[in-house]
Design a protein that fits this description.
Helices cover about 30% and strands about 25% of the residues. Helix 2 packs across helix 3 and helix 5 packs parallel to helix 6. The strands form three sheets. An eight-stranded mixed sheet has the order 5-10-2-1-13-15-16-14, sandwiched between helices. The chain has a four-stranded antiparallel sheet with strand order 4-3-7-8, with no helix packed on it. The protein has a four-stranded mixed sheet with strand order 9-6-11-12. The chain has a single domain, classed as Carbamate kinase. With about 270 residues, the protein is of the alpha/beta class.
């Protein structure tokens, strides 16, 4: 079993990703896609007059500030435009795909945070209480297995659902990690718009090709911005029994196959 996470950053080639997915699925590979949509969400948020806001937690991680209006835009883009575009691409390529959000059938479930502590632009600590964010803690494995056994290729997207029945924005990389551990995946492939984890974010030739899983947390020092969550997701997946994680490039032809051949940053 392979779980693939593809981000939503600018430059990602979804046609290449879905073509590779469809071919692997047709060859009998059990595979699940988890996708994001951050760049498109930013663009549409600007057009709707509700520009995105990002906050930095006291521990140094950046995340999207998700008030109710942002959550509704998030659902429109992730669950509607991007998820259904991916399903359409896969269907066009012969894969009988089905797209689900974490809300559907309580596929991804967790706790909404009561409050988040952030560092504001002036370096002061603040507490936000109207943020619809959380962390995936539970996966509806019965639903996933039902669909896989019926032959569907799954395309899963945030948001998740809280135990109280509220939609919550969750990090896609960490959601993919818990899906991978739930289905006992051999590999988690995290695709983005860079070749993998770089020693220098401005130099793609500085790719780190191999990391021992015992050193993955130490590799966080090379991660900047959103890539920190990818390293965190990798750590969580490996700790929960996933054998291998690969950070790989979603801008190239056959990106998943390339990752399976060891191209990118391989962690095991």
């Amino acid at each position: 079993m392979i779980v693939v996470k593809v981000g939503g950053s600018k430059g990602i080639d979804l046609e290449a990703v879905t073509s590779d997915l469809a071919e692997l699925h047709a060859a009998g590979q059990k595979i699940i896609l988890v996708h994001g949509g951050s760049y498109e969400t930013n663009v549409i948020s600007e057009k709707l007059g509700h520009p995105p806001k990002f906050v930095t937690s006291v521990s140094g991680y950046e995340s999207r500030y998700t008030d109710r209006t942002t959550l509704e835009i998030f659902e429109m883009v992730y669950c509607g435009k991007i998820n259904k575009s991916i399903v359409e691409m896969l269907q066009r390529k012969g894969a009988n795909a089905i797209g689900l959000s974490g809300i559907d059938g309580r596929l991804l479930e967790g706790t909404r945070k009561d409050a988040i502590k952030i560092i504001d632009s002036e370096g002061k600590r603040r507490v936000l209480r109207d943020d619809f964010t959380g962390k995936v803690e539970k996966v509806n494995l019965a639903l996933i297995n039902l669909l896989l056994e019926a032959g569907y290729l799954l395309a899963i997207t945030p948001p998740a659902i809280s135990y109280a029945g509220e939609a919550i924005n969750v990090d896609g990389d960490r959601a993919a990690a818990i899906v991978a551990s739930a289905v006992k995946a051999d590999k988690l492939i995290i695709l983005s718009n860079v070749p993998g984890l770089l020693r220098d974010v401005k130099d793609e030739s500085s790719l780190i090709t191999k990391i021992d899983k015992a050193q993955v947390e130490a590799s966080m020092r090379f991660a900047e911005g959103r890539f920190k969550k990818k390293v965190m997701g990798a750590t969580e997946a490996l700790n929960e029994g996933v054998r291998e994680v690969v950070f790989a490039d979603a801008r190239i032809a056959k990106p998943i196959s390339a990752a399976l051949e060891g191209k990118g940053t391989v962690i095991n």
